[in-house]
């Protein structure tokens, strides 16, 4: 069975939240109103009972005194007692009294808010005997519901012919008393409805404002595609919805970066591999299988181009992984030992004047393998652009907030206009044309530095030389230099870094 879908308006988050708020507010107001009515009715009943009890206590005090206030003499009959009590009553607004002499007259208050001398009341009084307790009941008369208390009264008459037994009845009508409660209930209901309308209006405005980022989120999610990941959600405030928008923007940035890296990898790979593939294809097409010399020459060329393609693919793959979380695996490393290890590895690269400019003894957090790879790449570039006997110097230093590794040489230098281009993929300076390499080395160095939260700086003067520096942030707790770690090889440094 297919259930019909609710209208879209009722399926929105705004509607659900608003309905929930109104339901909670309505339930709270309803419970408050119910408790208020119950308490008010209870208070009314207590007040009515207290008023009736007061009249009965006055009757008992009257009887205990036994003196007729009109004559100053003792009561001679129950009729005198009831008449005197009725005439002296100052009843409440909605209360009246009735004195019934069994077998005799009936006495009623001069001012009566309602008629108490009815058949129902007399029937209640008729059931009482001189030994009966006070009887309280509720009867319905023409005035509505009345709380009735009847008290048997007995006075020994001086004349045996007169009645000795009577009933004192106090009645209190409930309709006017409860009318106040009903008025209060109606006023509360009107106020509650107004409050709910106010809550609905204010709640709607607040909910619309708070959930507006969801509209932006929906628009961004709808507009995002593989061709365009530049959409971002406007973020306002610092609440949970704003955090959601920030998280969504962060996801889009990661996706955009991933797609851009993938796209760039494919473009770079296609562009750079096309040339060696064309060379290999051209030579194979012109190959003379019957000529051993031609076969050997072509074989050597093909193997060389394949080796260059392999190296190119490895470099591109490394750059493609540069934005992955596991590209670097930070750990504790000793800057001095790292510099010594790099120097040991690069000395065989060429007959250069190898030098240590300075050696920072600090323990830092970083990926020693990646940093070694970056320094080796910088040294390899310096070797490529220098000749036998030229200077290639390595060094490290700590300035309190950063650790710096530098590689400098006295090679041809770089023109100012080429300083930015050399860090681009496959970018080369004019002095680097004709030098073997893929053009990805400095891109790899930059990726490693950025993965550590650092950067690469270069100072170069044409005809004088260049200095490339890895600037890496230090962990705050590890900025203090430490003693030279065991196993490192100290290198004495003279003026201007001469060993």
Write a concise synopsis of the structure shown.
This protein is of the alpha+beta class. The protein has ten helices and twelve strands. Helix content is 48%, strand content 17%.
Task: Label this structure with key terms.
single chain; 499 residues; five-stranded antiparallel sheet; five-stranded mixed sheet; disordered C terminus
Describe the structure.
About 50% of the residues lie in helices and about 15% in strands. By secondary structure, the chain is an alpha+beta fold. The strands form three sheets. It has a five-stranded antiparallel β-sheet with strand order 2-1-5-4-3, with helices on both faces. A five-stranded mixed β-sheet has the order 7-9-10-12-11, with helices on one face. Strands 6-8 form a two-stranded antiparallel ribbon. A hairpin with a 2-residue loop joins strand 3 and strand 4 (about 145-155).
């Amino acid at each position: 069975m297919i259930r019909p879908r609710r209208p879209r308006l009722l399926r929105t988050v705004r509607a659900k939240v608003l309905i929930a708020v109104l339901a909670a507010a309505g339930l709270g107001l309803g419970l408050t109103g119910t408790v208020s009515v119950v308490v008010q009715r209870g208070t009314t009943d207590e007040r009515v009972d207290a008023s009736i009890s007061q009249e009965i206590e006055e009757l008992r005090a009257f009887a205990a005194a036994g003196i007729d206030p009109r004559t100053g003499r003792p009561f001679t009959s129950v009729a005198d007692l009831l008449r005197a009590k009725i005439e002296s009553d100052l009843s409440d607004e909605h209360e009246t009294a009735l004195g019934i002499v069994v077998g005799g007259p009936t006495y009623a208050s001069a001012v009566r808010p309602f008629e108490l001398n009815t058949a129902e009341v007399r029937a209640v009084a008729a059931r009482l005997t001189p030994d009966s307790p006070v009887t309280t009941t509720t009867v319905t008369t023409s005035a509505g519901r009345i709380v009735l208390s009847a008290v048997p009264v007995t006075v020994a008459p001086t004349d045996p012919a007169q009645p000795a037994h009577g009933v004192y009845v106090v009645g209190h009508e409930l309709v006017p008393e409860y009318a106040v409660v009903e008025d209060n209930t109606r006023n509360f209901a009107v106020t509650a409805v107004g409050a709910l309308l106010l809550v609905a209006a204010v709640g709607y405005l607040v909910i619309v404002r708070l959930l507006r980022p969801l509209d932006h989120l929906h628009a961004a999610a709808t507009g995002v595609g593989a061709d365009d990941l530049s959409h971002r959600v406007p973020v306002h405030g610092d609440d949970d919805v704003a955090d959601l928008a920030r998280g969504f923007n962060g996801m889009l940035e990661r996706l955009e970066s991933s797609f851009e890296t993938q796209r760039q990898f494919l473009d770079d790979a296609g562009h750079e591999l096309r040339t060696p593939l064309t060379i290999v294809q051209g030579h194979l097409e012109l190959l003379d299988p019957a000529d051993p010399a031609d076969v050997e020459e072509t074989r050597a060329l093909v193997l060389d181009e394949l080796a260059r393609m392999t190296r190119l693919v490895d470099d591109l793959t490394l750059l493609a992984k540069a934005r992955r979380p596991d590209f670097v695996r930070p750990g504790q490393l000793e800057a001095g030992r790292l510099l010594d290890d790099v120097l040991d590895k690069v000395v065989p690269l060429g007959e250069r004047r190898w030098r240590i400019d300075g050696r920072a003894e600090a323990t830092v957090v970083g990926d020693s393998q990646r940093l070694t790879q970056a320094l080796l790449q910088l040294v390899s570039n310096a070797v490529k652009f220098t000749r036998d006997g030229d200077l290639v110097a390595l060094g490290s230093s700590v300035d309190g907030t950063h650790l710096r590794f530098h590689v400098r040489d006295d090679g041809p230098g770089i023109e100012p206009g080429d300083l930015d281009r050399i860090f681009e993929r496959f970018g080369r300076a004019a002095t680097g044309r004709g030098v073997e390499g893929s053009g990805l080395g400095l891109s790899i160095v930059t990726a490693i530095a950025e993965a550590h939260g650092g950067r690469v700086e270069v100072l170069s003067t044409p005809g004088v030389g260049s200095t490339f520096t890895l600037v890496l942030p230090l962990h705050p707790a590890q900025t203090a230099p430490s003693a030279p770690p065991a196993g490192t090889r100290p290198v004495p440094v003279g003026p201007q870094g001469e060993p």
